[in-house]
Design brief:
single chain, alpha/beta, Rossmann fold, N-(1-d-carboxylethyl)-l-norvaline Dehydrogenase, domain 2, NAD, 3-hydroxyisobutyrate dehydrogenase, 6PGD_dom2, NAD binding, oxidoreductase
Length: 294
């Protein structure tokens, strides 16, 4: 199976290397020469978008729906270059409405579509331990099973085209909310004299636990490493997409808008380039101050 991976950032580059190591014939595509050179030095065949080779699978790992649309629609584009029956897989976190629109165009051109947004960060991409949310048809997923198995620890089919991106936005909304609420809970406990690590151990033994309390806090926050590979800017973008999707579907006001506002309250602190876990820093400073005074 020939696979073109389009977008060789931290996620796309690591997915390309993982597929290459798994025995697939992989070509990495990127507009930036430094990205191509970095992957080429690790043994991957690379190319520019205008020299895109034919493939069975075109796996996209791009920042937003804007770039996904450009790759699919603008000349030279996949609708013109991809052969009939090949599959376009969008692993980006994209706007679901745009994904459904693009899926219709892809299928009308005789190609197949799957949205497959991922979680697990660069480490998960490098080790083939990603989580994937699949939006597409059963027969497409069956054809891609070897690829999905090489990339993921768990791939969950959640519905038709666009559904994977809907669930991904819901997931990221919850993650963003959990970072805020867990940081506030830890600060509350610290104010009462409880060590943050002890507080987290207690939370993780009860119903208040989440992936944020079990993974993010010990891995990137309490350690002060803040190097998860996912930025504030990307999370802010995903939250705006979730808010817009909710507004488009005329959902009643809930907590989503408050979470979006909290993440955008001070665009410079943390900055878009900072690790997304840095949203907790203001609360963690309170925790450190509180415990140091006991």
């Amino acid at each position: 199976m020939k696979i073109n991976v389009i977008g060789l950032g931290q996620m796309g580059g690591n997915m390309a290397l993982t597929l290459h190591k798994a025995g697939f014939e992989v070509t990495g595509i990127d507009t930036f020469s430094d990205a191509r050179e970095r992957l080429s030095s690790q043994g991957l065949t690379v190319a520019t978008p205008d020299t895109l080779p034919e493939a069975d699978v075109y796996l996209l790992s791009l920042p937003t729906s804007v770039q996904v649309r450009e790759v699919i629609e603008q000349t030279p584009n996949l609708l013109e270059k991809a052969r009939t029956g090949s599959i376009i897989v969008d692993t980006s976190t994209s706007d679901p409405s745009i994904s459904r629109e693009l899926a219709e165009k892809v299928e009308a051109a005789g190609l197949h579509w799957l949205d497959a947004p991922v979680s697990g960060g660069p480490k998960g991409a490098a080790t083939g331990r990603l989580g994937m949310l699949l939006g597409g048809h059963e027969d497409t997923i069956k054809r891609l099973e070897p690829v999905l198995s090489a990339l993921s620890a768990k791939a969950t089919h959640v519905g038709g085209p666009g559904s994977g991106h809907v669930v991904k936005l819901a997931n990221n909304y919850l993650c963003a909310a959990h970072l805020l609420t867990t940081a506030e809970a830890v600060a509350l406990a610290a104010k009462a004299g409880v060590d943050p690590a002890a507080c987290l151990a207690g939370l993780n033994s009860g119903s208040g636990r989440s992936a944020v309390s079990e993974v993010n806090f010990p891995e990137w926050i309490l350690s002060e490493r803040f190097d998860s590979g996912f930025t504030m800017g990307l999370m802010r973008k995903d939250l705006r997409l979730a808010r817009d999707a909710a507004a488009h579907m005329q959902l009643p006001d809930g907590l989503l808008n408050a979470v979006v506002d909290a993440w955008h309250a001070d665009p410079d602190n943390p900055q878009d380039t900072d690790d997304f876990n840095a949203i907790t820093q203001a609360w963690m400073v309170l925790s450190e101050t509180s415990t140091s005074r006991q």
